[in-house]
Amino acid sequence: MAISNFGTIIQAKSSKKYKLVGEKSKKLELMLKRFYDFYKFQPCEIKITRKIPEHVGLGSGTQLSLSLGLLLSKISGKKISIDELAKFCQRGLRSSIGINCFKNGGFFVDAGRISRSKNLSPIIFHQRWPEEWKIILIMESTVTGIHGNKEKKEFKKISTNNISLQSNNCEVLVMMIIPSIIERNFELFCKGISKIQKNTGEYFNRAQGGLYSSKNIGNIFKKLEKVGYDGYGQTSWGPTGFVFCKNDSEKKKIFSILKREININNYNSLSLHQVNGRNRGYYISKK
Predict the structure, then answer these.
(1) Domain count, the chain
(2) Which of 55, 111, 3 is nearest to 237 (CA)?
(3) Domain of residue 202, CATH code
């Protein structure tokens, strides 16, 4: 699903030659070089004014690649689809969730990419996120999620023989998650999320060193479980954790519990962020 508050903002204007101003990195410069070498975009001055933190489970790479490619194509007057840009940037190799969040926002269910397929994985369900349902993110500053070559290696190591967990996730998805979003049944949704998160944590346990990649966030989730709360988990490889809240009132209550746990246990590397579901995709504004 797409969320608010964590986004990528890029400013660009035509110029006589290509120029990158502000924050620079080898990764960004390489990305731009590939775009210019292949698509022959019009020279322009580019400034990244805001971007999503890297390797925390929020899909920063996909959003930056697509934002940059789409903006350059618009300035150059070239009609290049988002899907084509995604394939060129080698995004969506396992899931097209990030690509579709960029396009439309909302809540998605991805069917997964068929082995050896050249197509992006199909989206089998898309629904607007209920605006009254709120989200709290728990971020960890001293841990990064598995990424890059290590991520590729871990996916190759993971056993494909645990059919029971896969089957249970599919059942929960069809019988709990999808109906609960359609009918706005928050309690059923949270129970379904908890089941899938526990199954996923068990499946990737060895790769990430536990049910969650951050032990501190894992301990906070144990507290939520003790007080009988469902609807929490880890984004992608983490370490970022999330907690769903039924409304603003419940969000304030849960936020206080989380803040107290962080202070009592001196989890100084953790921070809390209140966000909303985002029901719109990218947008381009002209000055």
Answers:
(1) 2
(2) 55
(3) 3.30.70.890
Residue showing tokens 């197509």: 119
Residue range 73-112, pLDDT digits in tens: 999 999 999 999 999 999 988 899 999 999 999 999 999 8
Sheet containing 9-14, strands listed edge to edge, beginning at the edge strand earlier in sequence = 9-14, 44-50, 19-21
Can you state the percent helix, strand and coil of the chain, rounding each to 5? Answer: 45, 15, 40
pTM of the model: 0.91
How many whole angstroms separate alpha carbon 11 and alpha carbon 24?
Answer: 14
Q: Which of 97, 126, 155 is the last residue of a domain?
A: 126
Q: Is residue 173 domain-shared with residue 259, that is, in the same domain?
A: yes
Residues 222 and 118 grouped into a single domain? no
Reduced to 3 states (helix: H, G, I; strand: E, B; else coil), residue 14 is strand
- Residue 236 to residue 273: CA distance in whole angstroms: 17
Domain span at 108:
9-126
- What is residue 28's three-state secondary structure? helix
